[in-house]
Amino acid sequence: MRFIHTIAVILLLTALLVAVVHAQEDLRLVVVSYEGWEQLQQLASWGLQIINYQGNVLAALCSDEQIERLQRSGFQVQVLDAKPDADLKHYYLAYPTPGDDLAQWPPVEALYPYGRGVYIVKATTAQVESLARKGIQVAKLPTAVVLSRILPDAYQPAGKLAYRRSIQAMVDAVSPTLLIHHVCKLQDDDCLEYCNDRGTRYSYASAQLNEAAQYIYQQYKALGMRVTYEPFLYNSHVMTNVVAELPGMGPASDHIYILCAHYDSTSNDPYHIAPGADDNASGSAAVLEAARVLSRYSYSYTLRFVHFAGEEQGLLGSAHYAAQAAQRGDVIVGVINLDMIAYESVPPNDHIVEIHAGTNPASIALADVFMNQITKYGLLLRPEKVTSGATGRSDHASFWNQGYPAILGIEDFQDFNPYYHSTNDTLSRLQTQMMVEFTKACVATLAELAFVSPRPLPKSMPPNDYPPNW
Predict the structure, then answer these.
(1) Among 53, 217, 332, 355, which is least packed by CB within 10 angstroms?
(2) What's the structural domain count of the chain?
């Protein structure tokens, strides 16, 4: 009897294994149209393996049974790939730049229309690199996304936030000189004269990327902040995120706000020259300068300042960081990501910027606070909030994928930087006042949300203006 029982158990386990394998083989890569955040949550509750959502369309891995249920319920379903790779290793989102001719794109394994102005591509690592060099932003698709970890009521309504002279003093402490200095140091080749535009921070140019990471690390070290390197491996290359922290004081210190930017760059000649002044030395400089100002004070919540590598290869650094944060159980209540914040054509010189919030109510609430602070502290920006049409082409999307509230601050897409992903993306072509105003907005927002102490910490503070060769 024991022998028969053992055989029965083996047969049952074998049958279950076959069923699992069969179910995995039957998953299709599909696009589903939906309406609004509530309906998106409803679809997630049906057990769909959602891998991305864009406005009113989502991409998912679905069984035939799930597809039939969706169609019976009135949803439009389009099968993109009947036999996708189970781990989605070679699937990416691809965002063409304005005026792109798809016929001129580098070859990929497969190209599928998806949302407005975005495609799903199946591509090898080499093909992804070719897309990036062509100026096409790519983002690695995850195997699944989490819709929401933080409720929108974590935020005080933006309209009720009062003007505070202590925050005004912090806003006024932002140094244009230091912001420009950081861009200079990130765009240049350290072997040449100060602030040249011959450097690169290409993710596969390991020596130069590490040099930039060391510069960022040393800035936080000089402020007396807790700072770490966080390396990760991709395609046999080690890339490194840099993470600095101001620990919160008191019972809410496990709640975390993040200000972040990617520090890597690319161009049409990335191994040799990719200064990336706008994309994205500008965002990295703003994070560094905001940290300098904010580090004078103590807060109820923890503040983190994160610089990502590998963004140009598919948001690699932020995807790694956000996944690790979710695995640790980090309570991240808001993320502000800065990417390309220092270009506009002159004229119109209208200071229009975009705040991409997506459709998650908690992200929208964070965007409302950010925009409120721009108005309340008289900053020279004209922000436009983007919800259903929000882009996923920068590091905030990695936090969306893990269910964390996040926004992207970026210059006007309608006034797109013509030097994007080229050797001509240099400081001399930027309007640096935009970078200054963005930095001030971040300081005002984080000081408010993290509950800044009314008095500065009793510690020495580096001066606002270093000599040019510092």
Answers:
(1) 217
(2) 2
pLDDT in tens, 251-294: 989 999 999 999 999 999 999 999 999 999 999 999 999 999 99
Biggest CA–CA distance in the chain, Å, is 88
Domain boundary among 113, 140, 167: 140
The range of the structural domain enclosing residue 116 comes to 24-140
Per-residue buried b or exposed e for 292-318, using 16+ beta carbons within 10 Å of the residue's own CB: bbbbbbbbbbbbbbbbbbbbbbbbbbb
Distance from C-alpha of 422 to C-alpha of 445, rounded to nearest angstrom: 32
Domain check: are 134 and 171 in the same one? Answer: no
271: domain CATH number is 3.40.630.10
Q: Assess contact for 8 and 58: CB atoms under 8 A.
A: no
Whether 104 maps to a domain, the answer reads yes
Asked whether residue 207 falls in the same domain as residue 259, the answer is yes
**Is the Cβ–Cβ distance between 468 and 281 less than 8 Å?**
no
pLDDT (tens digit, 9 = 90+) per residue, 174-197?
999 999 999 999 999 999 999 999
Give the count of beta carbons closer than 10 Å to the beta carbon of residue 37.
18
| CA 194 remoteness from chain centre | 30
Helix axes 361-376, 432-449, angle to 10 degrees: 110
Does residue 467 sit within a domain?
no
Say if residue 104 is in the same domain as residue 229: no
Q: How far apart are CA 40 and CA 147, in angstroms?
A: 9
Q: Which position has the token pair 């290359």?
A: 237
Contacts of 198 (CB under 8 A, 6+ apart): 188, 189, 192, 273, 275
CB atoms within 10 A of CB 271: 12
Does one domain contain both 93 and 167? Answer: no
Whether residues 258 and 389 fall in one domain = yes
Instruction: Give yes or no for a contact between 270 and 321, defined as CB atoms under 8 angstroms apart.
Output: no
Tell me, yes or no, whether 357 and 387 share the same domain. yes
pLDDT for the residue numbered 15: 43
Q: Are residue 120 and residue 47 in the same domain, yes or no?
A: yes
Looking at the structure, tell me whether residues 170 and 130 fall in a common domain.
Answer: no
For the full predicted model, state whether its pTM sits above 0.85: yes
Q: Distance (Å, rounded) from C-alpha 374 to C-alpha 371? A: 5
Identify the CA nearest to 146 among candidates 406, 408, 404, 407. Answer: 404
- Cβ atoms of 214 and 263 within 8 Å: the answer is no
CA 47 to chain CA centroid, Å, is 26
